[in-house]
Amino acid sequence: MVTLKDVAKEAGVTATTASRALRGMDMVTPKTTQKVLAAAEKLGYRMNISAQSLRTGKSGTVTFLTAGIDGAYFSSLAMRFAAELNKQGMHMLIESSQYLVDEHGNEKDMSYLFSDGIIGINAKHASKALASHPSVLLEDYTIDSPYDQVNAPSQAGTRAAIRHLYEKGCRRIGLVGHDIPPESNPGASQQVRMLAAKHECQELGLEFDEHSLISVPWSRAGGVEAGHRWADERLGFDGLFCPSDGLALGVLRGLADRGVNVPKDVAVIGFDGITDGEYSVPTLSTIAVDFTSMTQAAVSLLTHRINHPEEERYPQTVTVGYRLIERESTRR
Amino acid sequence: MVTLKDVAKEAGVTATTASRALRGMDMVTPKTTQKVLAAAEKLGYRMNISAQSLRTGKSGTVTFLTAGIDGAYFSSLAMRFAAELNKQGMHMLIESSQYLVDEHGNEKDMSYLFSDGIIGINAKHASKALASHPSVLLEDYTIDSPYDQVNAPSQAGTRAAIRHLYEKGCRRIGLVGHDIPPESNPGASQQVRMLAAKHECQELGLEFDEHSLISVPWSRAGGVEAGHRWADERLGFDGLFCPSDGLALGVLRGLADRGVNVPKDVAVIGFDGITDGEYSVPTLSTIAVDFTSMTQAAVSLLTHRINHPEEERYPQTVTVGYRLIERESTRR
């Protein structure tokens, strides 16, 4: 039988180089690769497919697929998943989904994505990749999704935030956000949070109409704009609910630009529980999502799918808990 | 000649599944993989190694290797590289290096890391991976490094920051940081910046001794501690240089805790130019690194190494420019 050593000898390279060339791995020059392939063909070499991934059918790698990891929310979430997967003996790669589509709108070849499974958040442009792997989506909220979902407590958390503003004496609560979220951001959870806020206001008997929304982009810059409008247009809200901490931090800066005192003139609460809110001036009250449970639930759902590919299990949805953290921005 | 279709027929699966099983890709169950391998062996099938990566010797993928992407600095840098690589027709994966070592301190198998090259920042625990790929390191500063390096203007930028504080009337300048940086952070650039700050102070004829350093961990929490110590220990600095914006943002919060007015009581300047400094209260003066040049230089160096593997070129070092941005924290 022709061995790898024979191929290497024929090609005039080391066995390691020959193996790498045949597997298409590491740094082998095109010229060397061609030489090794020619030698393998000449000798009738049959690859000894013995890599762990072929023996077990698994690579031990999970892809964290997200439109972008900009900012504290996505990057800290990714690092939590890396830690949890490492605990489970797996390895994580981060893949940004925003470049998965070519100029004609076609999904690019993802054959290099050899992971055992995908954890996706806001992973647009990746339907093929998701469909061809065991996948768990975070913050998706799609009804009848074919994938397991793990969600933040967007409804319960939002209602708690509104009630908190109410208990702090707020009677005209404004919402900061936008009806049509930009592509690059978690639109689904935003919509769920906006609707829940509206319902809770109505339940508390508070005035709530189309003027209760300060419509700005879901970003820090959008938050700054909302803060400016609060002051410049004398909107009169005594409490502001921001469906993300990023937005809320922008609002605090926008209000500071106008010399507005938070929380005396207006109380502000965010949503997520990113660490940035501990360091802002004033510090930010927020609904802190239980990221530990979110990470563990998603990894547990995913590993079950990976280890039981034959099992026909309905998609599961897990919603994790939250903790209301009162800081300076609502302390009055 | 035995074809893939023959193998698929023998194994009772589709040609697509057979191909995936043979390549160890996508979601194929261990059972199916075994069946396909057995069929291939029985029929004497020889893999048609035709994947693009084997024809060209390249996968079109670059790995961004970093200890962690927590926080605004690393995550925004990663996204800039993803954009630049996409422009060059390549694709980026992010790999966290902190889990590359097993419990015995041995580097784990990285054979799945089939990228054409590596862009590494603070990529400890990855010497094998770096050595086996064309690699460019950011912020490394190692003398006689075998790798191309692209660095922030740590010396020139720091001297500009100190001069800025001096021109704003500061005569007792304090440095926030630590001599022995924690594992997970960019120690090299910190050391270069601390040394440059010391030299610039001496050149300006300012008092500078061991008491000029407020020694805290390189993190936002460390910055808060430095702010508290400024007030509680009456350190008397009228200007503070922080070698990272993260540290500086912590300092602003720590000073706010004690009711200190920035910049009236003490001026504060950071280093990096992350967007967070536009949103803090007060907004943060900083040395904004030219990240566009940094990204382009690193990608250009890397693609040259990838495309000319035969070329024996000395390691290159590129240092990019900066812009001093004056904001509220030093505006007086």
TrEMBL record, chains A, B:
CDD domains: HTH_LacI, PBP1_LacI_sugar_binding-like
Keywords, ordered alphabetically: DNA-binding, Transcription, Transcription regulation
Residues in the signal sequence: none
Domain HTH lacI-type: start-end pairs: 2-56
Gene3D superfamilies membership: 3.40.50.2300, lambda repressor-like DNA-binding domains
GO molecular function: DNA-binding transcription factor activity; transcription cis-regulatory region binding
SUPFAM superfamilies, per database record: lambda repressor-like DNA-binding domains (SSF47413), Periplasmic binding protein-like I (SSF53822)
Source domain of life: Bacteria
PANTHER family: HTH-TYPE TRANSCRIPTIONAL REGULATOR GALS, LACI-RELATED TRANSCRIPTIONAL REPRESSOR
Protein's name in the database: LacI family transcriptional regulator
